[in-house]
Design brief:
Structural class of chain A: alpha+beta
Structural class of chain B: alpha+beta
Shape of chain A: globular
Number of helices of chain A: 3
Order of helices and strands of chain B: EHEEEHEEEHEEH
Strand content of chain A: 15-25%
Number of strands of chain A: 5
Number of strands of chain B: 9
Distance between the termini of chain A: 40 Å
Distance between the termini of chain B: 25 Å
Oligomer: heterotetramer
Radius of gyration of chain B: 16 Å
Largest sheet of chain A: 5 strands, mixed
Strand content of chain B: 35-45%
Largest interface: B-C, 35 and 35 residues
Radius of gyration of chain A: 12 Å
Shape of chain B: globular
């Protein structure tokens, strides 16, 4: 089974207790929404933070909808509102 | 397009861009610098983090979009990441065109996209503490201008 | 504000302006250069004449107007006069502010006014002959923006 | 009686046959419109050119209306449409 790298940027890194996690996602976890439920089980603070609609999610470096299913993912990134420039 | 992990010289960047575009009648540019903060709570440093890979690709996407929207000769974008002191340049954007309106609007557009559509995050360190910078409501209003057709004036 | 009778270096001007405004978060600038003309009828030179005294005063008036309209930290304007070759800089305008919208709009405004409200006249010399340049209809449309309140968005 | 310097800029210089004229204006010539009539008497080309509404007139370095009367003028400038920047 393949490992997936979860990335948490900016203020989300603090909420997640670190910028990176290597996980083995169960087969039935195949959408960003599913990943959020799975990783924030038992962590209400992280659950609340990731539920905010202004958090964007990138699967393998492509920003996708929360309900977009994927078939294996090497990297899933959780992106709080951007503040570049 | 360059992501600069260390301090860069925007004046030299403009000089290079201008030498490469002497045939352009109009060169507009923008430099963003780290603000000093409040007098009674000055900014000590600004840390800029980004998502490598996605940031470059998003910037290239909206630079390509700008090249389609306006008759431009060239675009240059340099975005700093890492730890910066007040006064240090954060971002440099330039556009060259035959006429000024295209150059102005392209730089304006690119800055709006860099502010709220590219995966960068700013964390400010002040004497009073550390905080992540959120986009301002103006940043969302600015980027909305390019969607509703308000600026689609003939150039 | 400077009327430059000989070639000037806009990159150095920006570097000076930036050093004088390290506390500004946003620096917008514009450089106008002599265009090369048509490939089959290239521009040999551009002669720029002006009305000394009135030109300086008009520019100072609309620079003061810009300082009232936007929360700016500084403005710089350099306008070349005399004979120029293609590629040479004609005009440099820069504005420094806390936030980018004020800096962008001020430079845009100042360029519109320099184009059609300051007593300068351009004469282009090409192989096919010499002609005085008339303002384009876009230049009148551009300056009208600042009168009808369209741009009076809160910044 | 004082002399007045008339200045013709840009394309008007060619229409006026020179950039500068020193003249003694009659007392009754006390508006830009009057100066235009007076200097273009017998010169239909210059008369037509100066009649165009896009010509601005500065009296002692101040842009004024064509009917604004002045009481003595050291310098009157005729300004065709500007093309700076």
């Amino acid at each position: 089974m393949n490992e997936t790298r979860l990335l948490f940027f900016g203020p989300l890194r603090e909420a997640a207790g670190g910028g990176e996690r290597l996980v083995q996602l169960p087969d039935e976890v195949a959408t960003p929404a599913g990943v959020i439920d799975w990783i924030s089980a038992g962590d209400e603070v992280l659950a609340a933070r990731l539920a905010q609609p202004d958090i964007r999610i990138a699967v393998d470096q492509k920003i996708v909808d929360r309900d977009a299913s994927f078939d294996g993912a090497e990297e899933i990134a959780f992106l709080p509102p951007f503040s570049g420039g | 397009m360059t992501i600069a992990p260390a301090s860069f010289d925007p004046d030299a960047a403009l000089a290079r861009f201008r030498r490469a575009n002497v045939e352009a009648g109009a060169i507009a540019s923008f430099i963003g610098q780290v603000r000093p903060g409040d007098a009674n709570d000055p900014t000590e440093s600004l840390a800029l983090e980004y998502y490598p890979g996605l940031a470059e690709r998003e910037i290239e996407n909206f630079a390509a979009d700008a090249l389609k929207r306006w008759p431009l000769k060239a675009i240059e974008i340099i975005h700093r990441v890492g730890a910066m002191a007040p006064g240090e340049p954060i971002v440099f954007v330039a556009a060259a065109a035959d006429h000024r309106r295209a150059a102005f609007e392209a730089v304006d557009f690119l800055m709006d996209y860099l502010k709220s559509e590219a995966p960068f995050w700013k964390q400010e360190k002040r004497a009073s503490g550390t905080r992540w910078i959120e986009p301002r409501s103006e940043d969302y209003a600015d980027i909305a201008r390019w969607r509703d057709g308000e600026r689609e004036r003939k150039i």
